[in-house]
Amino acid sequence: MKSILLISLCVLNFGISHAKDAVPLADDPVTEQRLISISEEMRCLVCQNESLAGSRSDLANDLRREIRNLIKEGKSDDQIRSFMVERYGDFVLYRPPVKPITWLLWVGPFIILLIGIAGLLTYLRRRNSAVSNITLSAEDNKRIDALLNSKEDKGVL
Amino acid sequence: MKAKFLIPLVLFIVLVIFLAIGLNRDPHEVPSPLINKSAPAFEVAQLSEPNKSFSPASMKGQVWILNVWASWCVACREEHPVLVELANSKMAPIIGLDYKDKREDALAMLTRQGNPYLLSAFDANGRVGIDYGVYGVPETYVIDKAGIIRFKHIGPITMDLLNRKIYPLIGELQKS
């Protein structure tokens, strides 16, 4: 019984140390969690379609290490973000800040939406006015009633 | 009535113009926020003389070029003859920043291909590179007499870029 326990302990231990080799993590999960939440919002500059959290490029590794150090130094999320922006520009942020140069980026889709709505409204209005109002005489109404009734009787509908 | 049929055509042309501009731009060329800012300070050991250090402060008062390179970087090898040309012109000293490299590999490359650098600073762990916003070696910075970065180029510099941009810029900065 004791030997089985010993063996299983060894195996377990081996497993743990092996896992540590593969994924370099910060010592405490709180730091790691903050690192992930910050770096998920950032673009990896080498492979631009990946976030800093997900990228396996060398630079992303270095930058994650750097962010980890900044967290340990007690820097706030905003301070870490500005650390990155000072070096790589707004381009690293997946949510670019609102400022004159990005106004078009932020407002552009809504402008296009407004143009679309305006276009739709004028189209609908024009279509409505194209259908001319025809005033029906009493005789016309009678004929319409007759036609409707006769269809009903035949059980078409 | 005729104008109505032209609307899709106009939209199509606008789309083509946008695509033509968008697709001809290099998405890897991200405008650097460091332009017109002071070159970040650092102090690291030199490549060929590990017991001596280099700091950008020592270059104050002259126009100089910082070139980030590494022996493992293929584009740097491609760029190397252009740097040798630039060094031969004696327009401005070139300081190398050997980025995340092995000392012996880097020195071997310089003996093989020639050494255009006044000296190379040795950035073993890439920490200096982070301060300079390096993300694709080679990168080249032109720094003025006051230590302000005036120009940055990502990727290998070419003879064309040298003649068109870098030489005139150095000349202009030397005058001031």
Give the CATH H-level superfamily of chain B. Answer: Glutaredoxin
The low-pLDDT segments of chain A are: 9-23
* CATH-level-2 architecture of the largest domain in chain A: Orthogonal Bundle
Which two chains share the most extensive interface?
A: A-B, 15 and 18 residues
Number of helices of chain B: 5
Number of helices of chain A: 6
Helix fraction of chain A? 55-70%
CATH topology of the largest domain in chain A, by name, is: Helicase, Ruva Protein, domain 3
Summed up:
Chain A is mainly α and 157 residues long.
Report what the structure shows.
Chain A is mainly alpha-helical and 157 residues long. Chain A has 2 domains: 27-97, Cytochrome C biogenesis protein (Helicase, Ruva Protein, domain 3, Orthogonal Bundle), CATH 1.10.8; 101-154, no CATH class. Chain A contains 6 helices and no strands. Chain A has helices spanning 2-22, 29-39, 58-72, 77-88, 103-130, 138-154. In chain A, 12% of the residues are buried. Chain B has 176 residues and is of the alpha/beta class. Chain B has a single domain (34-175), classed as Glutaredoxin (3-Layer(aba) Sandwich). Helix content of chain B is 40%, strand content 18%. Chain B has 5 helices and 7 strands. Chain B has helices at 2-23, 74-89, 103-113, 127-131, 159-175; strands at 44-45, 53-54, 64-69, 94-99, 119-123, 139-143, 149-154. In chain B, the strands form 2 sheets. Chain B has a 5-stranded mixed beta sheet with strand order 5-4-3-6-7. In chain B, a hairpin with a 7-residue loop joins strand 1 (44-45) and strand 2 (53-54). The radius of gyration of chain B is 20 Å and the shape is elongated. The mean pLDDT of chain B is 91.
Provide key terms for this protein.
heterodimer; A: 157 residues; mainly alpha; Helicase, Ruva Protein, domain 3; 66% helix; B: 176 residues; alpha/beta; Glutaredoxin; five-stranded mixed sheet; 5 helices; 40% helix; elongated
